[in-house]
Each structure stands twice: as structure tokens, then as C-alpha cells.
Amino acid sequence: MKGFVTNNALGVQIVVCATADALTDFVTQIQAQKPAAAQIVAVSVREMEHAAEFEGFSIKPTQTTPNINLPLTPDFAQCAQCAAQMLDPHDRRYFYPFTCCTQCGTRYAITEKYPFERENTSLATFKMCATCQTEYDSPEDVRFHAQTNSCPDCGIKFWLTDNFGKILTQENQEVFGQAAKALSEGKILAVKNTSGYLLLCDATSVQAVQQLRERKRRPTKPLAVLFPDLAQLRQHVYLSEKAAAHIGSAEAPIVVAEVKNKGAIALQEVAPNMDTLGCMLPYSGILKLLATQLNRPLVATSGNLHGSPVCADAPEAFEKLSGIADLFIHHDLPVRHSQDDSVIRFTPKYDIKLVYRRARGLAPSNYFEPTQNKVDNTKILCLGSDLKSSVSLQPNSHSYTSEYLGDLGNYETFQRFEATLSSYAETFSLKPDVIVHDLHPLYQSRQAIEPLQQRFPAARLHAVQHHEAHFAAILGEKNSWENKVLGVIWDGTGYGTDAAIWGGEFFLYEKRKISRAAHLNYFIWILGDKMAKNPKISAYAILGDALGQENFEANEQRIYARQREQKAVQTSSVGRLFDAAAYVLGFERTVFFEGEAAMYVEQLAKMCGTDAKNVYLDSEDFLSGEKLLANMRTALGHGASRAEVAAGFHWSLAKMIQKVAVQQGATHIAFSGGVFQNAYLVDCIAQKMNDLTLSWHEHLPANDENISYGQLKHYQYILQ
Questions:
Q1: Reduced to 3 states, what is the DSSP secondary structure of residue 631?
Q2: 642 and 606 Cβ atoms separated by less than 8 Å
Q3: Residues 277 and 259 sit within 8 Å (Cβ to Cβ)
Q4: How is residue 193 annotated by DSSP?
């Protein structure tokens, strides 16, 4: 066969001269023998006239075009073959962390524009040496046309410094050897990884982990652990085959798993009061070299200050992390898209996949969508939510959802949010016809609207209610637009169409319409954002004086009572119901991170296993959070254990969903909202309603990260 192959704005283009039979076989073989990291989302074949005669088959250079219409390639974990070369003392890439090939290595993190060619990345200034160029030009070589090909002679340079910026060494083996020695001595290391900085310390050292927590001001939120290899990881946690496949995949996310044996890990310091551990394997050459040198578990957490984006370059890292890290490993490859690690979990009983954070390896392309999934030619930009922010867009026949950006209440995160909007607009030459935003009038994301309107004056504005966006996200992910579906959307907060704070919603979808079918009974929203930080406030908002005066100082109770009497704002929030349940079950302090109280309730419930437990719902008023909590308190007063009542609370929520499903005649239920990151609750629901079709998020987080995607799908599919 003769012809050529090239990349263009639509993807890979192949022009060949062949008989019909040969061409059919060729197309079949391309799909059957595609590279492991490749995803073929569509194949189209057409006959064309071509005047030129081909002498053979060649690769043509990519032609730059302003109109990109293809998925964006995420970052890939280093493959086993490249890792072996990097660790081989006889190989020319020995101890070179950016050893990679066509099947692995950084992509999205270093991309400046598309298509993905070396000249369009931050590697453009690193000219390949003669040996690397020979590899690049050789069809037999694993680095044939590998855009990120480099070696110690022509590639990225590393250096180790102290936290004053003094260079300690610039020789690769010494950089990683000295860093590993410092980690073994209890020091904290900031390392510039492939997509931004990480903070590392010895996970077996109580003192080192405590010091990291104190310096980073992260008192209780669980930390992830980097294991040197899968064998060590399996010694410490239970890992299903599905979980093992994901943690060892090209995406290489953090996987939250049940602890089997804490071994030498300082578990109480790493994950206080938890029996799960966020686990990861060394997915980059940088992490593999450190893990190989040290051969023990390391705490690995984002290189940032609380609430801020991950640091991307040395000046920023010195400014923000020099008070945390004792040593720094830097390199000179610019990171254009800094990202956190993705986080997933599988439920213990039914092995249902839950995505907690979608970032490195998973973003930004929505590969899960049907091929060329576009309703019309409308170009859409969606601004998402404030907490766990992301942005989504449909500039062509593909949709894209950014990596996790963070909380827009943080100024630096908001700057990153604006930069992400600008970057996508430039990448796709996007002039949106519609800008979609949340209904909440005070969301930070709405601050981006005015500058966007100045830049794109023809763009129309469109508001979507928060929980309807959640529902549209799961409908879109599962492509359930032709079905009748009951949506259960439970989270902490979202502005409702009646100006109440929604969060315990039941919706019906049918024939491109969404209607609110039911909700958790309203209770009073007290003291604004403070309510989410203090479970006692939620408990009082629901139970009132029945909670007992002994739980309050006199002035405190007067303030809460006045707020409750005013009934200024009402809420149906299941997130706050979880907080109230946590208080009833003994969680009596303020929370240090979002979801901490709910995790406490889940942790208690797990002590009782997943067999059906007592249900505390009122038989008549089964949507009443007040009666549910009152019955739980009665059970505790009659001698039931906290663990038993916590389990019953989860089973009560599952029963509540079942009752609404029966009322509505639903046979298909879809779930979204941050509450459904609770693995115990998901297993309870799966067990109780195993005769129904249940849809869970598998590709997007159930939390507010999916709001921007839901806004996009809502605009495209829901009748206005």
C-alpha cells in the first residue's frame, strides 16, 4: 500500500492507494492493533481523487490550523519498557526521569497549542540530539515519531536545592540519591513532577507526617500514600482486580482502598480515624527513581498551600512551599497545565467505581460520550460551580471538561479559572454563542461573565439550576436521553428556583423535560456558610430545642433560636442532614475539611457490615429529617451502639429513595451530588434496589466538578 499519514485538526488522516479488499483489511487491522494508549473514537472512510503518485508510504508533517476538532490527549504514566531502560545502568537513559515513548509520558501538562506536535509544546526549545533524532526517524524504534523523545544529552535538566534556593547537586543520580536519603531522615521534599509540584515525606515516620501536617496546616484530611510497587501496596490494602487494573493503568489515579495491614505506615497520622488509604504507584520516572532509591511508602500530597492551585514552576514553589519543604527537586521543563492527581474508589461490596477527583490522566476530553455527540452547531461555554470548580465547552463535534480547578473563593484559584477559560478559547478559536452559568446570583464564577461578554458581545447568557445540572450530568454521561429516569440529587448546597437552598432532590426526566418530584422536608438554614463548618448548627436547625440545652452555651442557643424563628432561608440539604447525624452520633467539634463529618458517619456505619439494618424513617412522613434524627436519638437512648445507628441512618436513606421510586413508578434511577461519594451508602442502595436500573457516575465525579458538564448537557437536551 502506498500513501501517507498525518495529523490534522480532525485527528489522524491516512491517504492510501489500495484495492477495496485491502483497504477493508487495513481499516480492520488499524483498530485491532492500535497502540495501548490510543483511543479511536470514530473511523470514516471515503474515496477521493488524488493526482499525485505515491512512491511509498510516508509520514507528512502536521499542518497548523486554527480550527481544532479532536480530543485532547491527557498525560500517561511511564510504561514498563521505558522504566526498565531508565533503571538499567547500561542504558544511555540510566537515571533519566523523562524517558518515554509513543505510549507513555506527559502530554496535556506541556501542551501550548494543538495538534500535539513537539513544536506546540514546552519541549520545543529542547532540540533532539543526533541519537534521539535517529530513534524518532526509525519506523522500527519504539520512539518513532515520539514527540516527547529526549535523553540526558539533549533533554530536561534536574537539580536539588535547599529551601533557601542553594543548589546542592545537578547530577541526576546524586539528585535522587540525596533526596531519598533526606526523606529517610524525616525531611520533607517538594518535587517538581510531570504536572506540577508534590510534597513528599516518609509515610512510616510519625514525626515526619505530623510535621508535614503542621507546616501545611492540614490537621485531619487524609493524605495519599505512594507505594514503590504493587506488591507492597497489596500487603497494606485490599485491592479488587478492577481497582488494581486502574491503579496500574496509563491514567494511574490515586485509588482509595480498605486497609488490610497498616504495617509500618503511620496510619493514624496519615489518615486519622480512617480504615481506608488513598494509594498510588509511581507513575512518572521522577517518582519511580525516588521510590526505587527509598523502597518504602511515602506520603504524596499536592504541592500547594491550602485551597491554592498546584505550584507549576520554581519561583512559585519557593515562594509558597519554602516554609513547608526542607529540600526541592526542580527541572527546567515548563509545565503549562499544572494538575492534581485523579482520585477514584471502588465500593467494598459491589465494586462500583466512584470518581472523587478528575484531573491528571483523565482530563480534559470526554471520551465517554457517544462519537461526535453534538446536537447542533451552537458553540457553548459553561462556567460550572464555585466549589470543586471545572469548566466545560463544546466548540466543535467534541465536548471537553477541564481538570479539577478548586474552590473559586480562593483568589489564585479564580485566576487559574480565568486563565483556563482564556486558554480554551485560544486553543479552539472559540467565540461562544452561549455562556451557561449557575442560577445562584452570588457565585464567584459569575464574576467571569462581564469580561467574557466584553470579549464575546454576541454571546447569550443562560442560567441552569444547580441540581438540574447535576441530573443532566449523569443523564449525559450515561446517554439516557431516551429513557424515563428518576434523578436522586443529594449534596450540601445549591440555589433553588424558590430561593431555598436545595440539596435533597428527586427529579423526573422524560421527553427532554425535568420536573421536581419530591425533596427532603425543608428545615432552617442557620448562619450561612458557618452551618457547613459546625455540625452542631445543622443538628439544632433540624431538631431545635429537642436537642437539649446542655449542648449549648446560653448565648449560643439564643443566636441559633433567633435564626430558627426567623425562618429566613430554608433548605433540603442532605449534606447538612449528614452533619446533623454526625453530631447526634458524637462528632461534636467543627470540621477541618469539607465532608469530614459525613466521613465520620460512614466510618462508624462500616463497623456493622453491609447487611440490612434498622430503619429510622417515620412511616408516614418519610421525607422528614427531623423525625429520622429523633428516632436515631431514641435508639441510642435505648442502648443501640453508635455504629449500629450510623448504619441504620444509611439504610434509612436507601429506604427513602426506594419509597419515592415506588411513588413515582420509577424503574431507572440516576444518582448525582457529593453525597454519593459515600461508598457505604452506594452499596446499601445497590443492595436494596437490585431489581432496578441504577446509574452511577463512572467517568465524572458525583460532586460539583460535574456541574459544568451538566450545564452543557442541560442546555443541549432540556427544553427551555
A1: helix
A2: no
A3: yes
A4: E
**Chosen CATH of 372-463 out of 3.40.50.1860, 3.30.420.360, 3.10.50.40, 3.40.190.80:** 3.30.420.360
Given a contact cutoff of 8 angstroms between Cβ atoms, the answer to whether 247 and 239 are in contact is yes
Type of residue at 426? E
| pLDDT for residue 373 is more than 60 | no
Q: Which residues of 35-53 are buried (b: 16+ CB within 10 A; e: fewer)?
A: eebeeebeeeeeeeeeeee
- Amino acid letter, residue 219: P
Q: How many CB atoms lie within 10 A of CB 63?
A: 11
Give the CA radius of gyration of the chain: 27
Q: What is the pLDDT of residues 271-289, one digit of tens each?
A: 999 999 999 999 999 999 9
CA distance 578 to 681: 12
Q: How many residues does the chain have?
A: 720
Phi, psi for residue 512 in degrees, rounded to 5:
65, 25
Concatenated DSSP letters of 157-192: -EEEEETT--EEE-SHHHHHHHHHHHHHTT--EEEE
Q: In what order do the strands lie in the sheet with 2-8?
A: 11-17, 2-8, 57-59
State the pLDDT at residue 558. 83
Q: Amino acid identity of 661?
A: A
One-letter-per-residue 3-state SS of 319-353? HHHCCCCCEEEEECCCCCCCCCECEEEECCCCCCE
Long-range pairs, 14-23, Cβ under 8 A, ≥24: 15/48, 15/50, 16/57, 17/50, 17/54
Whether pLDDT at 205 is above 60: yes
The pLDDT tens digits of the residues spanning 123-168 come to: 999 999 999 999 999 999 999 999 999 999 999 999 999 999 999 9
End-to-end CA gap in the chain = 53
Q: What is the pLDDT of residue 103?
A: 94
For residue 719, what pLDDT is reported? 81
CATH 3.40.30.10 fits 504-509+518-705, yes or no: no
Confidence at residue 369, expressed as pLDDT on a 0 to 100 scale: 86
3 state SS of 394: strand
Q: Is the pLDDT of residue 366 over 80?
A: yes
Tell me the per-residue pLDDT of 623-661, one tens digit each, with 9 for 90 and over: 999 999 999 999 999 999 999 999 999 999 999 999 999
Instruction: List the domain boundaries for the chain.
Output: 2-59, 158-345, 372-463, 504-509+518-705
Residue whose C-alpha cell is 483498530 = 31
Per-residue CA distances from 379 to 183, 272, 371, 458, 471 (Å): 50, 46, 17, 12, 22
CB atoms within 10 A of CB 612: 13
Residue 554: CB atoms within 10 Å: 7
Identify the CATH number of the domain defined by range 158-345.
3.90.870.10
Enumerate the β-bridge partners of residue 597: none
Cβ–Cβ < 8 Å for 409, 399:
no
372-463 and 504-509+518-705 have identical folds: yes
